[in-house]
Amino acid sequence: MNRKPDLSFEALAEATSTDWNVGRGKLNEALSGIRSQMPGIDDAELATEILYRAKLYRRFMGQAILTPQALNMHWKRVLEENERTQAQATNQQAAPVHCTTCAGVRFVVYSRRRMPRTELTNTVAPTAGTEFISPTGGKAVDGYLDFIEEYAPCPECHAELDTAHRRADGSMFRGPDAAQVRERLSA
User: Fold this and answer.
1) What is the DSSP letter of 125?
2) Do 125 and 143 meet the contact criterion of CB atoms below 8 Å apart?
3) Which of 8, 37, 109, 187 is the most buried (most CB within 10 A)?
4) Please, are residues 85 and 56 in contact by the beta-carbon 8 Å criterion?
């Protein structure tokens, strides 16, 4: 007997890592609450929305365990919180900067270095002995793109900007300080 897949049920089970056999009742109860908050939406759209809001839940609730009931309870809250924080995070309304060093873009080219051909750059870099211009304008010759531009905050108008971040391997990256950038620009 072939039953029609219940995509939203499966999405809720997947998003909350709930075993269908053990948590079927809790899943159905939470799904009923979620459906009542989203009237008129079809099952496939609801499944997509469940996965999206589960991602938002994890972003805003930190280490809190995501259960079907928790997602149901915070269904509207995670979307409202996402809209609120997105509005605060944008810098599109930043005041224009009149700077002769960076021409108002707030960043300068700090260094250029050669980039060897790797699997990641295979679609851009050509085979040895040929020349190719990438979509970004970098020329590739003999398996090397001629350079990668590294940017740093402008030392004149944005010297206080901290561009530190974690790399994919978890290590910390700290950009050059304003004095180092000034030295490089004058060289």
Assistant:
1) S
2) yes
3) 8
4) no
Distance CA 122, CA 53 (A): 36
Contact 110, 176 (CB under 8 A): yes
Q: CA–CA separation, 39 vs 3, rounded Å?
A: 23
Structure token digits, residue 139: 């020329």
User: Quick count: other Cβ atoms within 10 Å of Cβ 69?
Assistant: 14
- Rounded to the nearest 10 degrees, how much is the dihedral formed by the CA atoms of 147, 153, 155, 156? 120
**DSSP class of 170:** S
Residue 106's Cβ-count burial label (10 Å; 0-12, 13-18, 19+) is middle
Least confident of 32-41, 87-96, 174-183: 87-96
Closest Cα partner for 14 from 57, 64, 61, 51? Answer: 51
Domain boundaries, the chain: 7-89, 107-186
- Determine the Cα–Cα distance for residues 57 and 80; give it in Å rounded to an integer: 11
pTM, rounded to two decimals: 0.48
pLDDT at 145: 54
pLDDT tens column, 90-104: 555 667 778 888 888
List the one residue out of 41, 47, 40 whose CA is nearest residue 12: 47
